Amino acid sequence: MPAEPPLSTYPGERLGLPPSGPGSVGRLGRRIAAYLIDSACAALISAAFFHYEAWATLAVFLIVQVLFIPTIGGSPGHRIVGLRLMPVRGGWVGLWRPIIRTVLLALLIPAVIWDADQRGLHDKAAGTVLVRV
Fold this sequence. Notes:
By secondary structure, this protein is mainly alpha-helical.
């Protein structure tokens, strides 16, 4: 009978990440704060230029995610709260990962379902992980 893989003792252990500090998995509080910052900024931009139309708010949010993740390593909200998005295997996040991740994030459900490493389904599908800077 094959041996079961050992249970991880902290989020990110199975990914080879440290338990805390720089490079560890970004915890829920920081991720929620980043999302709220990005949402508030999108709402402000939408209110200023599009009379706070729902479609414009969503479009601004999505565009910011897709543009900033490959260029600065995360959305403005991520960077403000000290998070960075990276591929699980390291390197540059590329162009397709932010698109896949953002489309799934827009559906919200994949973002609130996560695994033992605290990676949402949107991050699992894109092969990414949010880590502390």
